[in-house]
Design a protein that fits this description.
alpha/beta, Rossmann fold, seven-stranded mixed beta sheet, five-stranded mixed beta sheet, about 15% strand, binds NADPH dihydro-nicotinamide-adenine-dinucleotide phosphate
Length: about 450
């Protein structure tokens, strides 16, 4: 911990895993002997590079880019690329570390990694975004390949950015393959990849509710964020009969007491795609805009935080408990601070950590990789069915591990411990089999 005190997000993610896998570790002396945990907290390597590009005025800009190749014990390094001014090594190491176990949970052959740049896409023109993506891949292409490391999107990186990066990779290597996932459907992308993280989180939620003999129909849902994960989580929750009351962004929270519907969600998607303000919604559909506020002061049954890390602090968690929230499903990665997690668990709020609940995105990325390899494509229905099955398997595996390692009482399932145990064990077993080479 002292060695990485300057990387608080990374330490936070590692501590959570360390505390929850203790019973598994005690039961497996071979993990201790092989120093599996000590090995897994050090990435295989971190690649760090400068990105030079020109803005529309012809001025030279300089940014920093990274790729953290954390573990390829179970398959090629796999994880998104984030473009946001807050990106640094601590953030990418926490994301890459979590990604190892998330990818293991999907049951698909993928290792863990993450990348990004401290580039701020806000206010940039399309040609500036294109030039930055090209410049970023001009450096990154040396280190990635469909069998080595397969990046994808994350905050600030969607279909448009993936396409620009793919074009540069193809141009430099003359290779048309599955080096990136989240590509356009017409040129190698998988159907449903765009929807998969948000839809998958709601499928996970349905399994949690079923385990408590409840259903999503009629439940009041608070969603934070208004990006890829948030809007698709909101969309699926609406489709299944929930009332989605909020979405938010870095400027504030939108509250619609009548609930969102498909038309409103389509409007929100179009608005965000043009980088226009969320608050314009009120003029079109009514509702309220709470500037610079998060959604957590509103009453509801279920919260799906889907914006960014540590967006829910202890005070927010207290508001959630007071306001009747009984289920929290993390669409984002590590959106709750450690203190917030402690508070909601103390109050027995059913809680699905991101590495289990938002694994649907990378799962469909895994399916995209296999479709690229065999050069054959599946239908939307086939992928949706597979996604549902994967989310159910992750849910059931975590619930079973929670029971086996004594983390369950009175029907409360410790998904955090269960998911960490299942993910960690899969990776640890592989590392033990390899000896000390990985
Ligand atoms: P997007 O860029 O599409 O959307 C991010 C949303 O969160 C935007 O509404 C943005 O607001 C808001 N946001 C981002 N940073 C902040 C901040 N510091 N404070 C307040 N609001 C913020 O990203 P995604 O939807 O792809 O990702 C959201 C989360 O989900 C991340 O934690 C990501 O790691 C995780 N995730 C994403 C997956 C995917 O498939 N895309 C897969 C698994 C996890 P604004 O528009 O104002 O910036």
């Amino acid at each position: 911990e002292a060695r990485y005190a300057h990387q608080p997000e990374f330490v936070q993610a590692v501590k959570e895993v360390a505390l929850t896998i203790a019973p598994l570790y005690d039961a497996h002396p071979e993990f201790q002997k092989m120093k599996i945990f000590e090995r897994l907290v050090e990435p295989d390597r971190i690649i760090c590079f400068r990105v030079n590009w020109e803005n529309d005025k012809g001025e030279v800009q300089v940014n920093r880019g990274w790729r953290v190749q954390f573990s390829n014990a179970l398959g090629p390094y796999k994880g998104g690329v984030r473009f946001h001014p807050t990106v640094n090594q601590s953030v990418l190491k926490f994301l890459g570390f979590e990604q190892i176990f998330k990818n293991a949970l999907t049951g698909l052959p993928m290792g863990g990694g993450k990348g990004g740049a401290d580039f701020d896409p806000k206010g940039k023109t399309d040609s500036e975004i294109r030039r930055f993506c090209y410049a970023f891949m001009r450096e990154l292409h040396h280190y990635v390949n469909k069998d080595i490391d397969v990046p994808a999107g994350d905050i600030g990186v969607g279909g448009r950015e993936v396409s620009y990066m793919f074009a540069m990779y193809k141009n430099l290597t003359r290779e048309y393959g599955g080096v990136l996932t989240g590509k356009g459907v017409g040129f190698g992308g998988s159907l449903m990849r765009t929807e998969a993280t948000g839809y998958g989180a709601v499928y996970f939620l349905e399994n949690m509710l079923a385990a408590q003999n409840e259903s999503i129909e009629g439940k009041k849902v608070l969603v934070s964020g208004a990006g890829n994960v948030s809007l698709h989580a909101a969309e699926k929750a609406c489709m299944l009969g929930a009332t989605v009351l909020t979405v938010s962004d870095s400027q504030g929270t939108l509250y619609d007491a009548n609930g969102l519907n498909q038309e409103k969600i389509d409007w929100l998607k179009a608005q965000k795609a043009q980088s226009k303000p969320l608050c314009d919604y009120v003029d079109v559909y009514g509702g309220e805009w709470f500037a610079q506020q998060k959604p957590w002061h509103i009453k509801g049954d279920i919260a799906i935080p889907s914006a960014t890390q540590n967006e829910v602090n202890e005070d927010d968690a207290k508001h959630m408990v007071e306001n009747g929230i009984r289920y929290i499903v993390e669409g984002a990665n590590m959106p709750l601070t450690a203190e917030a997690v402690d508070h909601i668990r103390l109050h027995r709020v059913h809680y699905a950590p991101g590495k289990a609940a938002n694994a649907g995105g990378v799962a469909v990325s895994g399916l995209e990789m296999s479709q690229n390899s065999v050069r054959q494509y599946k239908t939307f229905e086939e992928i949706d069915e597979r996604l549902k099955r994967i989310m159910k398997n992750i849910h059931d595996g975590a619930a079973e591990a929670s029971a086996n390692y004594g983390q369950t009482d009175n029907g409360y399932i410790d998904y955090m411990a269960g998911a960490n145990i299942v993910g960690f064990k899969r990776v640890a077993d592989a590392l033990c089999a390899y000896g000390i080479l990985n």
